[in-house]
Structures are given as structure tokens and as C-alpha cells.
Specification:
disordered C terminus; 21 helices; 16 strands; Rossmann fold; 471 residues; 5-stranded parallel beta sheet; 4 domains; alpha/beta
Length: 471
């Protein structure tokens, strides 16, 4: 019976590669091979196996350097090292740094299979994903390696009760990842409760989190349970935790340390059993340096940190996401939409997407709403991308130039291109005004609605040279 687990074997000994491939394949594992560390890294860039087994002695990069690269790029991927007697100290050192195990050549096949079984049972995706069960992460549409690495770590940490801090740009999908962690956790049958800490005024946020008793403040006509109690037994997701006001950070820290909450206006502490996930787009190291975020709360929340890649860092996901959103929205708008024209899809893939997945969804929704044919054309995508383009922040010089040009244009429109009147309104002499017009490439004649045909081309109207004029 074929296993769901795949193993990458790395060794320059072709006979040993064949022998190991036979043994592991016979045990039901899917096996791929590489004869060097460089070839192994190239394979890992395309797809991630369940386990890597590598010889320590390799041409070029050795097995220990390969292990270091794997730890840096795929920290949750287990590695078993194969070593001769002379390299045992190196293998032991690598094991202390995180290698799953090492086996000394010649090794017993039963010992090898035991180690492989242990490693694959702990590997990302082994629990809950065996047989292709990805229901815990069904909302996250991706085939990129960058997201696969994040999801692998998320799957591992989900089995624990550790607090997780999710970092990533706005619109990258931080709440979706938090929901996925909850669904993969032992708390999945209990509530998942989310709150945006930056969207609620400070005076109301405390009540939202911890609840209040009747009469605690004006308008509190009844007692109300807070979100900590609502999420009891489950998961509380604190989105944009970096925007939480400092006074509330103290109360949140106390709740996390004591595992109790005290409703506003109450002296009674209520025990709660809640796993806390948090997220932010802010650099909390900078916030701590500016005394805007408490270090003790940061370390309490940041037991494990997961960093979501931006959409620009996983462009291979854009066609997949765009088609997924198109299918969803076509059903919503009751339209027959089959896909994107090739040049339209190319435009989507090449766009900058500063708003990440949320911005992509908005763009696809716009093209769905305006589409009149089953295939989305480039023109609609270009229109959506233009509408979604963020407002550019200009520097002072550019902003001043833009204002001056707009101001001068308005004056010429008001005076129908009469420079003397426009200069008078601007309280500038006509020579200076002409220089301003010349600087911005504005021609007064073009603003004259009643200019006879041919006059603009012949330079009729204000005939004086704008630079030589002395009046």
C-alpha cells in the first residue's frame, strides 16, 4: 500500500541510492533522489517532501551544509543524516541543532524504517493531512512553496496550546491562517472568536474583551459577557494587536498570565480557558522601542511567530486565486464566467498588489460585475487595476508642482484664457504669471472658448513674448 509520505534521498553513492529506494518503496513510501546537495535544494524549491535522508559526505555542499539550508528555508522539515564513523561527531552536533536523527553506516534496515516512521509521523501534514485531508486549511488557496512552508509550521503548532503571533501585510490573510490553526487544533469543536483591536474605541475595547456588569458605565443597563468568556474552551484571535492602547495591554497581560478575566465594574475574577492567537501588520520591535507596546506582552504572545508572505512573494498563486474568486463571484452575480483571457491573466500576475489577496478579490469582483462575456478581457482587468491603484504619496516638491498647475489651470478657465485677468486674480504681475505658465507648459489660448478658428495656431491673442514683456 502506497503511503501519503514522500522521501527525498540524497547520496552520491548510486548503489546505496538504489538500495534505499527499493527498501523505502517496498515499505510504501514515495521516493525521489538527488546525487548532490545542490540538486536536492533545486528539488525542494519545486516541492517539499515529508522527510529528507542525506549522507553527510557529498560533493560540493556537504550534508551538514544541506541540513543548515533546509533548517533556514524549511524549519519544520525533518532530516535524517547518514554518516560514517569518522563523521559521527558532526552528525551528533547536527542532531543537537535540530536534525531528527543520524544513522551510522552500515545501518540496519529495520532501524532505518523505524526512524523513517517516527519522522514522518511528526512531519508537517502527517497528522490530519494523511490521505489528502486538507479540510483544516480549505479556505487558504495556494500552491506556492512559501505558503506551504507557513502552513507546515502552522499544522505543527496547531497541535499545541502555544500562543502564535501572525505577522504579515494588510490583506495577506492573517485571519484565515488563524482560523486554519484553530480548525487543526484540539479546540476545533469550541468557538473561534475574532476581534480587530484597532477598529474599536479604547473605552469600548475593554468591555468587548472582558465584559461588564450592569451599571459599570453609562448605558450599561445589563451585564454582558466578554469575548474571552465567549471563546472559553476555544480560540480568541486578536487582530491588529499592535494597535491596542497601552493601558489595555496591561490588563490583557494579566488575563493571559492568570487565565482569568475581570469584567468592567466587577471585583470578581472569572477563570477562562482560551488559546490566544494574535496578528499585526506593524513592526512590534519598533513599537516596543517607541514604548508603544509592552515587551512582556510581546513575549507572552510571540511564543511562535508565523510570517505570511505577501501576494507579490507568491505570484504563482495569483491565477489560482483569481479563478477561485471568479467562480465564487460568478455564482453570486448569477453570471456564466469561464475564466480570464491569457493577456488578462498575465496582467493580474504582473500587477504589484500592495493590498494583497483582499485587493485581488476586489479587482475580480469588479470585473465580474462589469463582464458581458464568459471570458474576462484584458480591458476589464486593466480598468480594475487602475481603480485599485493606491493613492501615491507625493513629496513636497511634486505636491507643490501639482497644486500650482491645477491652480493656474483653474484661473485660466475662470478668465477664459485672459492672462491679464488671471494674473490680477493671482495678485501677480503679468510677467511673473507668464513665467509660471511657461514652467508648467500651460498655453493661455487653449482656455479660450470663443477663440476664432486658426487664431491659436497663429499665436493671436496675447502676442507679447512672455519672457521679454516688461509690462
Amino acid at each position: 500500500m502506497t503511503s501519503n509520505h514522500s522521501i527525498l534521498l540524497v547520496d552520491d553513492d548510486l548503489d546505496l541510492l538504489r538500495l534505499l529506494t527499493m527498501r523505502l518503496s517496498a515499505a510504501g513510501y514515495r521516493v525521489s533522489t538527488a546525487e548532490s546537495a545542490e540538486a536536492a535544494l533545486a528539488q525542494l524549491a519545486v516541492s517539499q517532501p515529508t522527510l529528507v535522508i542525506s549522507d553527510v559526505r557529498l560533493p560540493g555542499l556537504d550534508g551538514l551544509q544541506l541540513f543548515d539550508e533546509i533548517r533556514a528555508q524549511h524549519p519544520a522539515l525533518p532530516v535524517i543524516l547518514l554518516t560514517a564513523h569518522g563523521t559521527i561527531p558532526d552528525a551528533v552536533d547536527a542532531t543537537s541543532r535540530g536534525a531528527f536523527a543520524y544513522l551510522t553506516k552500515p545501518f540496519d534496515s529495520h532501524e532505518l524504517l523505524d526512524k523513517v516512521c517516527q519522522a514522518t509521523s511528526l512531519s508537517p501534514g502527517a497528522k490530519g493531512d494523511a490521505g489528502g485531508d486538507h479540510s483544516w486549511r480549505e479556505e487558504i488557496i495556494s500552491r506556492s512553496q512559501a505558503m506551504a512552508d507557513v502552513l507546515a509550521e502552522a499544522r505543527l503548532v496547531a497541535a499545541t496550546d502555544a500562543s502564535v503571533l501572525i505577522a504579515g501585510e494588510s490583506g495577506a490573510g492573517k485571519e484565515l491562517l488563524a482560523r486554519a490553526i484553530h480548525r487543526a487544533s484540539p479546540r476545533a469543536r469550541k468557538p473561534f472568536v475574532a476581534i480587530n483591536c484597532g477598529a474599536i474605541p479604547e473605552q469600548l475595547l475593554e468591555s468587548e474583551l472582558f465584559g461588564h456588569v450592569k451599571g459599570a458605565f453609562t448605558g450599561a443597563q445589563t451585564s454582558r459577557q466578554g469575548l474571552f468568556q465567549t471563546a472559553d474552551g476555544g480560540t480568541l484571535f486578536l487582530d491588529e494587536i499592535g494597535d491596542m492602547p497601552p493601558p489595555l495591554q496591561v490588563k490583557l497581560l494579566r488575563a493571559l498570565q492568570e487565565r482569568t478575566v475581570r469584567p468592567v465594574g466587577s471585583n470578581e475574577a472569572i477563570p477562562v480557558d482560551v488559546r490566544v492567537l494574535s496578528a499585526t501588520h506593524r513592526d512590534l520591535d519598533v513599537a516596543m522601542a517607541d514604548n508603544q507596546f509592552r515587551p512582556d506582552l510581546y513575549y507572552r504572545l510571540n511564543v511562535v511567530k508565523l510570517s505570511l508572505p505577501s501576494l507579490g512573494e507568491r505570484r504563482e498563486d495569483i491565477p489560482l486565486l483569481a479563478q477561485h474568486f471568479l467562480t465564487q463571484l460568478a455564482a453570486k452575480y448569477r453570471k456564466t464566467l469561464n475564466g480570464f483571457a491569457p493577456d488578462a491573466l498575465e496582467a493580474l500576475v504582473g500587477a504589484p498588489w500592495p493590498g494583497n489577496v483582499r485587493q485581488l478579490y476586489n479587482a475580480v469582483e469588479q470585473v465580474c460585475a462589469l463582464a458581458t462575456s464568459p471570458l474576462i478581457p484584458l480591458s476589464l482587468v486593466q480598468r480594475a487595476l487602475q481603480a485599485e491603484a493606491p493613492t501615491q504619496v507625493l513629496n513636497y516638491v511634486n505636491a507643490k508642482q501639482r497644486f500650482e498647475r491645477g491652480y493656474l489651470s483653474q484661473l485660466l478657465k475662470l478668465t477664459a484664457g485672459n492672462v491679464a485677468d488671471a494674473a490680477r486674480l493671482a495678485e501677480r504681475n503679468r510677467t511673473e504669471f507668464y513665467r509660471l505658465l511657461q514652467r508648467h507648459g500651460l498655453v493661455a489660448q487653449r482656455f479660450r472658448d470663443d477663440l476664432p478658428a486658426g487664431d491659436e495656431a497663429s499665436g493671436q491673442g496675447d502676442r507679447k513674448n512672455p519672457v521679454d514683456s516688461s509690462t
